[in-house]
Specification:
Layout lengths: L2 E6 L4 E5 H4 L3 H10 L3 E4 L4 H15 L6 H11 L1 E2 L1 H10 L6 E5 L4 E4 L1 H4 L3
Length: 118
């Protein structure tokens, strides 16, 4: 399987399987359009990309997972502080219909239509 290198604004680099990168339509199109395995992400920091990759890896390997297991993972993943929530929503790289729960119990529904608006 092909490897993709994602480079963040803070010079952090992450090597991921193509299947993981393709969990994001934006990354998929960038890879296909650029015909490159090195993708710069100038508006994404390493810690946020690490969270996005964690999410994408889990969903890329979800073939054997039950819907309940994925829902549990999503619920745990989505419990973030407001700064992280803002950064995750800003990068718009992940694809999922999940509810992001902040530390103050505010909930934000994020779906593909919202996640990919410019």
């Amino acid at each position: 399987m092909a490897k993709i290198v994602l480079k963040c604004s803070d010079d952090a680099e992450f090597e991921v399987d193509e299947a993981v990168a393709f969990q994001s339509r934006i990354l998929k199109h960038m890879i296909e359009d650029a015909y490159s395995s090195n993708i710069p992400l100038p508006k994404v920091t390493g810690p946020i990309l690490a969270k996005v990759i964690q999410f994408s890896k889990r969903h890329a390997s979800a073939v054997d997972a039950s819907e309940e297991d994925l829902r549990s993972f999503n619920d745990h993943f989505a419990k973030v502080d407001l700064d992280t929530l803002y950064d995750l929503m800003s990068v718009r790289l992940f694809v999922a219909k999940i509810v992001l729960k902040c530390s103050d119990d505010a909930e934000f529904k994020v779906d593909e239509a919202v996640a990919f608006q410019s």
